[in-house]
Q: What sequence folds into this?
């Protein structure tokens, strides 16, 4: 089963931003026609904390839709949405540092954050983070290379998690041109000007579609396709509104599993689907010259044409548990789509075509042996194999490689805790939930770590996690690493660190 035994030690990690002048702030306010914007429900505000000279020229609303680039590093790629530009946690950048012992990753900045689970996105030299402090949710716009603040947008919230998890956002911001979209844990969906932070439009999806609070609130990051913003909403009829929290087995759908909004105005373009929302992000793909969108909703996979909202199929895939959730984004390769969950059924591979889907293979519902049981992390496909973390809890989580076409387990390693992966330059950057980070070769034959917070003990096949971690990131570290323009971003509890992964040329 495992390519080697793993010796683990219990880990503990501890948590160890230029102010703009009044004259410049006054000029910005005049140019923008006033940065402060207050909406009736809920109250919102924008604060300019710090900026650069180019921003002054950008504040004018007459500036074109494209966000002006303020970055100094080029040659790589932006990371404008959840799981990167292609929605699969894969980067095309090359030239990463591989020997972290002799050439440690240089820390460019580290910043304390509020409460949330998600990591940010990067576009045109800006880093966007969605967090909460006290009774307000914040969208932070930072210089991606220095961590210095550019603007901050805030709105009121009273969300309380039903199960004791933190009360902050679960979704990542989505940047499209000069607009940034954020989908809050209580269902508030905002479109902001990415240059100024000013609100463009706002939709309360809970109020508009009758959404019953899910176990952990709203946690599915939307996607942009053409002029549409596609969201997993999962609303319910009036009759379901009186059902007590946590009893989703009694909640019905009102045909709003998927909702598409005009990305410019927030106006509804279509809705469909009799299902409730999950925590997986929609996945866009082009298959045989036809555009597809796949939504892994509460009860299973929905395949449809994203511009029309015409549904092709629904494939049931859910554990027979009330508190089961689907949270891993579908993986698309060629004409095939893989879905995976951790509460029971495991994984299933489907071949899709217009109008339907057929099963290639699926884990047996009666067997304890599953190919992959992805929790919140999304497995990554590389050269015929799928790499990811399998297991619901820290104690039973295994880092695995499976064969795509069959689901056969190639290798499986215990003891690394629940781990999130990002692929770059032939390697995986792996971050465990207690903050340890290591670099691993994409090797279907064996588990092959080569750098970072994991070391060979001297005996073949034995590995050890250190007592201390390299970047002082505290549990829970549940967001997948981000790679953009040669920089590596890692998120822990209430902090984020930016490291130089590829030396600047």
A:
């Amino acid at each position: 089963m495992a390519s080697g035994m793993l010796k683990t030690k219990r880990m503990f990690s501890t948590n160890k931003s230029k102010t703009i002048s009044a004259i410049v702030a006054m000029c910005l306010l005049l140019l923008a026609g006033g940065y402060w914007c207050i909406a009736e429900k809920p109250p919102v505000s924008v604060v300019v904390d710090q900026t650069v000279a180019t921003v002054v020229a950008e504040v004018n609303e007459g500036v074109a839709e494209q966000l002006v680039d303020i970055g100094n590093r080029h040659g790589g790629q932006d990371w404008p949405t959840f799981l990167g530009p292609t929605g699969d946690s894969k980067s095309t950048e090359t030239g990463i540092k591989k020997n972290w012992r002799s050439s440690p990753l240089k820390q460019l900045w580290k910043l304390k954050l509020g409460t949330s689970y998600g990591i940010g996105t990067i576009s045109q030299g800006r880093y966007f983070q969605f967090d909460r402090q006290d009774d307000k949710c914040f969208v932070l716009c930072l210089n991606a290379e220095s961590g210095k603040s550019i603007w901050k947008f805030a709105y009121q919230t009273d969300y309380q998690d039903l199960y004791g998890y933190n009360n902050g956002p679960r979704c990542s911001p989505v940047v499209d041109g000069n607009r940034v979209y954020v989908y809050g844990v209580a269902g508030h969906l905002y479109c902001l000007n990415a240059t100024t932070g000013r609100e463009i439009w706002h939709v309360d999806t809970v109020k508009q579609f009758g959404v019953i609070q899910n176990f952990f609130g709203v946690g599915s990051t939307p996607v942009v396709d053409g002029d549409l913003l596609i969201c997993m909403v999962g609303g319910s009829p009036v009759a379901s509104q009186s059902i007590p929290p946590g009893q989703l087995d009694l909640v019905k759908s009102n045909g709003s599993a998927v909702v598409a909004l005009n990305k410019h105005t927030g106006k509804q373009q279509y809705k469909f689907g009799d299902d409730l929302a999950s925590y997986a992000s929609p996945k866009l793909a082009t298959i045989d010259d036809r555009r597809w969108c796949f939504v892994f909703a509460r009860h299973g996979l929905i395949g449809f044409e994203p511009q029309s909202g015409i549904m092709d199929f629904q494939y049931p895939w859910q554990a027979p548990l009330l508190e089961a959730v689907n949270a891993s984004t579908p993986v698309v390769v060629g004409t095939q789509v893989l879905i995976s969950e951790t509460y029971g059924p495991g994984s299933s591979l489907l071949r899709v075509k217009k109008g339907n889907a057929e099963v290639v293979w699926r884990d047996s519902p009666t067997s304890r042996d599953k190919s992959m049981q992805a929790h919140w992390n999304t497995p990554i496909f590389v050269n015929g194999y799928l790499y990811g973390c399998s297991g619901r809890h820290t104690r039973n989580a295994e880092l695995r490689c499976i064969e795509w076409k069959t689901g056969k387990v190639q290798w499986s390693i215990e003891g690394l805790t629940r781990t999130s992966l990002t692929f770059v330059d032939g390697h995986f950057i792996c971050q465990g939930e207690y903050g340890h980070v290591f670099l691993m070769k994409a090797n279907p034959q064996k588990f092959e770590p080569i750098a970072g917070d994991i070391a060979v003990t001297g005996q073949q096949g034995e590995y050890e996690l250190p007592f201390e971690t390299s970047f002082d990131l505290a549990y829970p570290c549940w967001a997948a690493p981000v790679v953009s323009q040669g920089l590596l971003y890692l998120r822990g509890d209430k902090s984020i660190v930016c490291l130089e992964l590829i030396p600047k040329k």
Remarks:
- The first strand starts at residue 6 and ends at 7.
- Residues 1-43, 49-64 have pLDDT under 50 and may be disordered.
